[in-house]
């Protein structure tokens, strides 16, 4: 493949379509193995071309079933698809609790589909630095579309917007009465609402409720969230769901919005990486332990302790 001759061996293998090499590199990224960094740096110029679609929502709404149907639909359109299923971390092992690879299906002979589960590593929003790096590996491997599934309450799982170009929030009809209390968080996340299990009672009411809220709410950057009803047993509405996602992707391409969003995401990621590095250094700082002793003794509160340590290590110019 053109442009791969000077790449590290692992990066060359990913560009050649070696799925085992891709899986090994994602594992190294997830484990924080710094030996993966040369390959990550070398592959970065090959990123930025895929559509990154976030799929989030509470447990039990059928996200994995929707993704299964989306995979089938997209493969029918001739698109290659990678899925990164980000599960809550085990408090004991740090590993993925739900194991989405068990719940997501693919034909073993179909090289146009790649599925990988990953632990959130304790991030409240379910999106860790390793998730972003893994998405880039999937982009560099040449996949047209990367689906990132996270588990969220609909209120706090807003970090999916920091990795996805389009965010889909999946709900089910019986959550309709709760939408009013959730709407601030939901509308911060969602570019598309998917009312799944639309064969259940109350589906039309839930869809109308969301449509009314979307119509009365303030559009984000000029985009009003689309509402689509789906069912996976039997499959129904998946084509309309993809049409809504594609409409948002087209919206981003108009007026420079995609580049603006990418700039926002990258600025936040870089700042987050710096924050993490500073945090690691602070934890090793001897001055921290003296402040902790004073906080434990209740002679100093945590906020003042943080301000003192910050002022000492980062004095104003």
In short:
With 317 residues, the protein is an alpha/beta fold.
Supply the number of helical segments. 12
Q: According to CATH, what is the topology of the largest domain?
A: Rossmann fold
Q: What is the domain tally?
A: 3
The largest sheet, given as strand count, sense and whether it forms a barrel, is: 7 strands, parallel
Q: Using DSSP, what is the number of strands?
A: 9
Q: Going by CATH, what is the homologous superfamily of the largest domain?
A: P-loop containing nucleotide triphosphate hydrolases
Level-1 CATH class name of the largest domain: Alpha Beta
Widest sheet, order of strands? 3-2-4-1-5-6-7
User: What share of the residues does DSSP label as strand, in percent?
Assistant: 5-15%
Q: Summarize the amount of helix as a percent range.
A: 40-55%
Question: Can you tell me the residue ranges where pLDDT is under 50 for at least 5 consecutive residues?
Answer: 89-102, 122-126
Identify the quaternary structure here: single chain
Care to describe what's here?
This protein has 317 residues and is an alpha/beta fold. The chain has three domains: 1-46, no CATH class; 47-254, P-loop containing nucleotide triphosphate hydrolases (Rossmann fold); 264-313, no CATH class. The protein contains twelve helices and nine strands. It has helices at 9-16, 19-30, 37-43, 63-76, 100-103, 129-140, 179-189, 203-216, 238-253, 257-283, 286-296, 302-313, and strands at 51-56, 81-87, 113-119, 145-150, 166-171, 192-195, 226-229, 231-232, 235-236. The strands form two sheets. It has a seven-stranded parallel sheet with strand order 3-2-4-1-5-6-7, with helices on both faces. A two-stranded antiparallel ribbon has the order 8-9. Strand 8 (231-232) and strand 9 form a beta hairpin. Helix 1 (9-16) crosses helix 2 (19-30) and helix 7 packs across helix 8 (203-216). The longest helix has 27 residues, at 257-283. It is globular and about 60 Å long.
